[in-house]
Structures are given as structure tokens and as C-alpha cells.
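Memo to structure team: turn this sequence into C-alpha cells by end of day. - J.P.
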Amino acid sequence: VAAALKTLQVPLWQGDLVTPGLSHPLEHGMTVTIERSVAVSVEVDGRRLTARTLSGTVADLLRELGVTLGPHDRVTPGLTTEVTPLMQVRVTRVRVEEVTVQEEIPFETWRWAEPRWEKGRVGLLREGSPGLRENVFRLVYEDGRLVRRELVASRVVREPRARIIGVGTKVLVHTLRTRAGVIRYTEVKDMVATAYYPGPESTAPWTDGLTYTCVKAGLGVVAVDPEVIPLGTRLYIPGYGLAVAADIGGAIKGNRIDLGFDTYREAIMYGKRKVKVYILAE
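Reply from structure team:
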């Protein structure tokens, strides 16, 4: 058969199927059939394989070329696709793995009203410690390149332990002998004192003589920042005397206090000075 095809100048390509075989002797009236292979290419593992094949499907072609597939590998076109001339097949290697990553859980800071501590005392009651979380991720690689990262499970291995700051709430009452008699106080504040007179010289255009709390202004009535000293608080200021916080002022912010006087001359004479302000016990 081979000699006959050569005489007839019939070309043969690698992969062509000749029936009967090339070494079969010729017989009178014999019919020789040639099933032509088709040229295909396969991209896999960074290489391009070219071949001529008689395979019926892509799966047959890969078996013929010795290409083995992993459980997640992707083939384009699909394995059941019929092989056609000049077909290009691509095998994408897909690898899936799971990794466990530990993540620190930050701890919170709590403030605890500590009744055993004097009011104003702040300190650490308990150190905090971070918790620990384990996250399981599924990593998907295609041809060695990470293309997807999915969180599939998460669990707290160790709960965080909050840091606790103690804030004293116990009010201690102290006593002090003053010109106004013995006073009972709970706190002392260092403040800057100024003076005012409820007349127009100090308060214009507000000259009705009433404070923010509608108490008549004058000696013993002072203006404060309510964020520092609540309105209605009874006070003692050395060199001034007993007072009540009953007014506010635009310039009276923070540790400032404005002392009321009955006359403009008294206010001017007092001026501005640093004072200790005693918060009286109820």
C-alpha cells in the first residue's frame, strides 16, 4: 500500500490513518482509505504543544498527548468538545489550598466607678490583653497566580481581656477654719478670679441686675463655667467669702470665675488674681 500511495503521489501526514496498513500487500480491486488527522495546539504548563491527531474529543486529545489533569484544572474548550482542524486548547492549572491565619483582637478600655477611691483619683485596676482569632482562607491559584481569596471559617481562640481604669467616686468631706467660720468642703480648685459689678459699667447692655439663673447679682453671686462648676454649687473663696455659682459669662471658660460685688469701685479694686475655690459640701 505504501508503494502504491507513493506512485500515486498521495501525501501522508503524521497521524493519518491508512486502511489497510501501509505494509499490507496490494490486491486486485483493493480500496485504500485514508482518514486525515487534523492539526491542533494545546497550551499547558507554559508550553504550546502542536500535533496532528485523529482524537474525537478534547479529552481523547489530552490523553494522547500525555497531559494529565488535576481535580480543579480547567480546560477550554470543554473535555467533551469534538476536535476540529486548527483547534486551540488551553489547560489552566488550578490549585486550591487552605491556610490558617492568626489575627489579634484588640482589647477595649473600660472606666469603672470605684467607690473605695476618693473622687478625682484615676488609676489602673486591671491590665488588658488582646484576644486571638483564627481565620481559615481558601486560596485559589491559576497557573501559579493567586486569583481568589475566600474566608471559609473563623473562630475565636482567646477572648480579649479589657483594660479597666478606676475612677474614684468616694466623696471625702474636709473642714477648714476661715473668716466665715468652719467650712466643710469636698474639693479645691485653683482658678483665676476677676470681678464685676451688676451695673451698666460692667454688664451693659444687660443691666437688669439678674443673673443667668434669675438670681439678683451682687456680692456672693459668682459666674462660672458650668462644665467646671455646676450652677447652684455653694463655694468659698478666700479674700471674698461665701458664694453661690449662679451666673455664666462669655469669657468665663475653664478654670475662671467672676466674682460679683455691690459697687463698681469694689470690683475695680479687686481686679484679677489667682484664688483657691473651695467646693462646699451639701
